[in-house]
Amino acid sequence: MSVYLTTPIYYVNAEPHLGHAYTTVVADALARFHRLLGVQTRFQTGTDEHGEKVLEAAAAAGLPVKDFVDRVSALFRQTWDEMDISYDHFIRTTQPEHVQVVQEVLARVHAAGDIYFGEYGGLYCYGCEAFYLERDLVHGLCPDHRVKPTFIKEENYFFRMSKYQGWLLDYINDYPDWIRPERYRNEVLAFLKEPLEDLCISRPRSRIEWGIPLPFDERYVTYVWFDALLNYLSGLDYPEGEAYKNFWPAQHLIAKDILKPHAIYWPTMLASMGVEPFRHLNVHGYWQVAEGKMSKSLGNVVEPRWLTARYGLDQVRYFFLREMVFGLDAHFSEAALIARINADLANDLGNLFARSLGMAFKYRQGVVPPPGGPAEPDKEVTAAARDAAADFLRHFPALEFSRALAGLWEFIGTLNRYIVTSAPWELAKAPDAAGRLDTVLYHLLESLRWIAALLRPVMPGSALKMSEQLGLGLSLWDHTLPQTLTWGRLLPGGALKKGPALFPRIEVEEKEK
Ligand code: MSP
Q1: Are the C-beta atoms of residues 6 and 37 closer than 8 Å to each other?
Q2: Which of 5, 234, 258 to mutate to test the pocket of ligand 1 (most atoms within 8 A of CB)?
Q3: CB of 250 closer than 6 angstroms to any ligand 1 atom
Q4: pTM for this model (two decimals)
């Protein structure tokens, strides 16, 4: 059993923004989660560096294209490194290893008869580098760029995508959660109701130079999507590499903007190549900023580095996973982020943690007390911990991050109420209640150990801080999640450590609001 997680490879025509960071953080959290389950995991991200858009951006920056792509690709990589993204492989489509795989695949698919030469006239959007059918246009304009496509007629190479339409339909029907959530599966099924056209996979060099030359015709370069999608295989050293044998098929993560290439072009390419289809296509919605799409031209691009420097990395990761229901659009605003930080992190979790440790220091000199026989409320806490963990372990790999976290926060609420009802400060006053106080404190501390363990994929840094203050050091780190989640592993007699608040409140000036 192994898991191979991928993000889209991002175009280097723009700098990393919130949307890229979201997908990458989701992939990172899933990768960390699977590693914690003891599953062999590979996580790949990277950059998509060919095509017209990139060429134009290089020209606008006044740089030779190779220098430009090196620079922006490095910027993506640095951003992910700064954000502690635990990718195993960073792929670039300008790498010789990738180019070689693309050419090898093209030659093979061509030889097998699935690529043919023909003439095509159609409506072409230069921005998308794609042909559109009338029915795809919105009021006669490209749905993405809002410009009128140009009619162009030229000779090109085509991939026999239409040949695989029936196979693709059957596959989607046979594997209901192959494309998920369901709304995107339905979108693809609706699209497949119309006859599928063949895919134009070449661009004449006379028009664009910046691409991978077709191995069987020097006059053409490869259409950027036929090149880019293959990164998922070339990054595994397909076809002979060990990584390919160990890790394919992939679990892809994308947003809805690139559903069609991933749900239609890619599986039909794989079918033609004789490669097993990917395991899941996981599709999320869009972050909307100030009631609209984020774009450079609108000047509302949120830079991930800026955001994490201002609010903290774990805070942003928590917000991403808690605020967006995977599959649906969500609104991003600093106010929403601050609200989550202050309510969920500083108040609910941060206070619970600080109060529990504070009481253990005040009443038990910072030593984990031995629990006595549990009373009814303590048994309820243990049962709630088990339920919360079981739900979390079920929802997280099903991409229901928000639900997984909401469930964990219900448990945090239960613990905050448990403090109020068991009133340790009263127990501390009564000498014959010492055993009860030990038991209550133990249940709080052990519950916090469970919370730290479950939060590791979401907020790795904060989980580590929690673990250190609970006196666990790295011991929490040596076990798989199911091993860690065994009640009673927090050993009585262990020394707790004082530390700074986990999540400082964000104070907002009235006028700034
Ligand atoms: N290069 C192609 C992908 C090729 S994959 C074989 C591409 N690149 S991109 O830079 O435009 O990245 C698109 C992806 O960035 C989306 O699918 C999503 O993962 C992420 N996002 C970009 N903007 C986003 C939002 N506003 N909200 C959420 N995710 C967004 O397409």
Answers
A1: no
A2: 258
A3: no
A4: 0.95
